[in-house]
Amino acid sequence: MTGETDLSPARLRHARFAIAAVFCAHGAVTGSFATRIPWIQDHAQLSAGTLGLALAFPALGAALAMPLAGRINHRFGARAALRALLAMWTLSLILPSLAPNLPTLCFALFVYGATSGMSDVAMNALGVETENRLGRSIMSSLHGMWSLGALFGSAAGTVAAHTGADARLHHLIAAVALTAAGLVAVQGVLDLRSDQEAAAPPHFALPPKSALLIGAVGFCAVFAEGASLDWSAVYLRDVLHTDAGLAAASTTAFALTMTVARLVGDRVVDRFGPVRTVRVGGALATAGGLLVVLVRHPAAALAGFGLIGLGIAVVVPLAFAAAARSGPAPAQAIAGVATITYTSGLIAPSAIGAVADATSLVVSFGLVTLLAFALIAGAAVLRPKPAADGAVRGDRDERGEPVDIRP
């Protein structure tokens, strides 16, 4: 990547804060949308089953559109691509609440997911490039900022829903505000451009082979995340027979530990390296899953879901970073990993439900526990790769030692 020549420490710090603000704005869109799903369901007059069908379209749109992001990055440069894609994503928040029926809602959610996926790839690729130039891990805290943005967006959406505000007005105001904030933030990111002499990536590129194993690790983490977010409250209510308030607290415990772990995760990664960090995280998530499955008590379940969130928190940020360093086309590799993880997020809730219908929710979370355990074995694929030019980029091995790849 080439581009601006001012890479002073002060410029890099400013770029880090700018890309963090981009992540926060991206997450706020998701939080704003999620809180108004009941309003959208009533407005479009959908049953629970047809709503479930419609909610599959964001992941479908993202999976199909993300491979295009590499071509857009190459053609327009990182800053210009991110500016356009982020604006498309924030403005797409307006569409779902306008849909009067199932077909229009499916189309709106397809566009919503497509713009989300492409902007997700662009901002993660730029985040990794910023991390490389800083020489220390920042991807975990960037994803932590995404989680904070989602919390802010959901808090505002909760207030809007509580006051009975029309979601069309709420989402219009939120979209305009987040678009403006995003455009201001993008001005501060690094202005990087691909080498124009290099061959442009294809318009639609399949995930490179280097991304498949890394994506598999991300798949395990996102499956555990989706299962815990969507089914933890149901588990406490139906299996442990708690009241609704305590059941909801399980989701809060999971989301809170995950957000906090991401915000502080960079220090852990810099100290111990990505491989050891993910192995320890996998062990914590496995222990949490065992608490949920084997100890049939609400306190143990709350602690267990908290440990799952803590254990898987940094896996996806590290998977994106590893993908970007796995080959000559970072955006294409990130798109491949993102496609796999989005697919995991799509199938996890329904897979947990299918297993529960055939057996029980306890068995379903036994599957989650096995996938958490797989992180321990799969962590090795996240080991930093040597740079092509032999430069030292501040990466660390699984023992926390600097990776010195000079001859």
Sum up the structure in keywords.
Growth Hormone, Chain: A, 407 residues, mainly alpha, two-stranded antiparallel sheet, 1% strand
Task: Describe the 3D structure.
The protein has 407 residues and is mostly helical. Helices cover 75% and strands 1% of the residues. The two termini are 23 Å apart. Mean pLDDT is 86; it is low at 388-407. It folds into two domains: 2-193, Up-down Bundle (Growth Hormone, Chain: A), CATH 1.20.1250.20; 209-382, Up-down Bundle (Growth Hormone, Chain: A), CATH 1.20.1250.20. The protein is globular. Helix 12 (244-272) packs antiparallel against helix 13 (274-294). A two-stranded antiparallel sheet has the order 1-2.
CATH class of the largest domain: Mainly Alpha
Instruction: Tell me the number of structural domains.
Output: 2
- Biggest β-sheet strands, sense, barrel: 2 strands, antiparallel
| SS-based class | mainly alpha
Write the CATH homologous superfamily of the largest domain: MFS general substrate transporter like domains
| SSE succession | EHHHHHHHHHHEHHHHHHH
Secondary structure tally: strands: 2
Uncertain residue segments: 388-407
| Cα-based radius of gyration, to the nearest Å | 21 Å
| Annotation field: number of helices | 17
Q: In the CATH hierarchy, what is the architecture of the largest domain at level 2?
A: Up-down Bundle
Range of helix content: over 70%
Summarize model confidence as the mean pLDDT.
86
The strand line-up of the biggest sheet is: 1-2
Give the amount of beta strand, in percent.
under 5%
Distance between the termini: 23 Å
- Principal-axes geometry comes out as globular
| CATH fold-level assignment of the largest domain | Growth Hormone, Chain: A
